[in-house]
Specification:
2 copies of one chain form a homodimer.
Chain A (H helix, E strand, L loop, with lengths): L5 H8 L3 H8 L10 H14 L5 H8 L4 E6 L5 H16 L3 E6 L4 H13 L4 E4 L6 H9 L4 E4 L9 E5 L1 H14 L5 E6 L4 H16 L5 E5 L6 H13 L5 E4 L2 H14 L8 E5 L3 H5 L5 E4 L2 H17 L9 E4 L2 E3 L10
Chain A binds a DNA duplex (30 and 30 nucleotides) through helix 2 and helix 4.
Chain lengths: ~350, ~350
Amino acid sequence: MKKLSIVDIANELKVSKTTVSFILNGRAKEKRIGEDLVERVTKYVEEVGYKPNSLAKSLRTGKSNTIGLMVEDISNPFFASIARLIEDRAYKNGYKIIYCSTDNDTQKTKELINMFRDRHVDGYIIAPPEGIEDDVEQLLKDGLPVVMFDRHLPKVNTDYVEIDNLFSTYNATRHLIQQGYKNIAFVTFASSQTQMMARVQGYKDALKESRFTPVVKEIVFNQDEEMIIKPMTAFFKKHKDLDAVVFGTNHVGTCGLKIFSTLGVKVPDDMAVISFDDYDVFKLYSPPVTAIAQPVDEIADNVITVLLKKLNTKGVSTASHSIILKTNLQIRGSSSGLKD
Amino acid sequence: MKKLSIVDIANELKVSKTTVSFILNGRAKEKRIGEDLVERVTKYVEEVGYKPNSLAKSLRTGKSNTIGLMVEDISNPFFASIARLIEDRAYKNGYKIIYCSTDNDTQKTKELINMFRDRHVDGYIIAPPEGIEDDVEQLLKDGLPVVMFDRHLPKVNTDYVEIDNLFSTYNATRHLIQQGYKNIAFVTFASSQTQMMARVQGYKDALKESRFTPVVKEIVFNQDEEMIIKPMTAFFKKHKDLDAVVFGTNHVGTCGLKIFSTLGVKVPDDMAVISFDDYDVFKLYSPPVTAIAQPVDEIADNVITVLLKKLNTKGVSTASHSIILKTNLQIRGSSSGLKD
DNA sequence: ATATAAAAATAAATCGATTAAGCTACTTTG
DNA sequence: CAAAGTAGCTTAATCGATTTATTTTTATAT
């Protein structure tokens, strides 16, 4: 018993496939097809469990009911959570997700965009690396909806959902200063993406306000964690005077904790720590680590809402919107209890 | 400038699209097409950056160059890592991944399988919930390659990649016993999937061997973590005599640590802990928590290798293979240094 | 009774590829 | 020199849907 096609249905019912197609696409009324026929076709289709071949459908209509999701790295808890939430809402709205990890690699991302185009995805959700401005511009020019998140491309006028990065680190750093810390470093991955620039700036602003000198260490990202640990270890060994550090991402923060553990640096007694992105590692550390929690649900929610809206108002180019969400500084004391 | 089709190429070069197609598919020699023409076409295609429409291609050939990946929950670090590794190797081999989270929900999984079929994915990678035996059977009957991992369906004869679950918990439990612990519980999510049954059994075997009585607590899974914490807290409050616990998954282990933190139970002084699945939370806990590390890379590697092999030997039904990998008990002492 | 409009259904083109089968012109061969 | 072979392309069918244009049937008005 091979797969049924619309022709099989039409033949079996002695009607034309056109009729079947109209009925199946809810255009029966519009095309004034007799109620009894509609009934008969609907029933039979239900009975034999016929499903239209979506490839053929996509080929003809140009719509694939698929959304392309490009994150930095799907194995990063932050992106994994967002992907999960987006996935759920996409499926509920009849869309499937094709995802991929860009690794912040411009060339790879360009190829992936081409791959997505090739597969005729209806919409794009991208946490963009730099250097893909032209490609995104082209997508927009071709009328394809694009929503960015976590960061955006300043030169490209498109919708994006972000958090208030600058205020987040500013606020976190001020928190440390108010607690009496005086030698506060900012450690993060080397990146000139918008979110990271803002995070560094927020830190610097806070220090400037109190007339401290900023100490920023940028680590070059590497798949191999050893290559992150090494330079960071060297940095901390060199700057013995530090009494606090703000980490720019969960990953770099986690590496930092590993290093402190190895070096026997006590957190927060020897070194106060605040990391961007909150997750179990920080919550369970003892004592738990203060973290800048991103509103993951809200981010995912906004991203998919904006995209779905664009998908449904095809052609009508609504002015692009940028949504900036607030983060939540999860202050965790030196008590061993979980505050969260 | 809209997208070029093969007809555009053919017209422009004044050849038939058949010729272009043959050349593009590397069948020029076979179809004895003149070298100069091949040259001319290749060059022009390169020049204008023509890419065949993959939907049309898939419709005609029946191949979509897509692999469907169904995990329990993409936001779980274990599955996220595996997904990431599989993704990488799939892309390298010209395959794209469509993924989804099953939530171990039978009905949802059935629908997702249908969705995948509908999209003509070439191969399936599934961490299967129970109850989808018939659906998988049908896939196999229709000649579609399926590889399972993390667990398998005993009634279905298909390839799968797993770890030695029984020995893993047996070994971990014995380790605790040898350390002198006498009241060891096993806490996990309620599940009758193969991997979980084996994990429980391994624990029981070890206890039986030493004539201890097993204490197994099965928590009903819930999206809302509160609903996991609550019954588990009740369990630990009730069993004050426990001095050690083996957790069946990373998620349940993490919840356990949160509870101990709340209750002020010191790990491992008041309660020794070993959890299945290793990740940063366990490594960074102080003192770090002993964990049963799954060979994530190997699992992903084997899964994709087996699947690619099946995809390349289409039709030739090779006997199905089961691959059982070894886990690694990461023993972490009470020293504060990272052993890992 | 006939022209006209409305209702109901269909034929055929199309989306963009692949591929079996066929055609033409030239070269071999007996 | 005619028959057979082969090199080099092309024609047309096909995959499975959607959709435009068209036809057939029935109802209504004149």
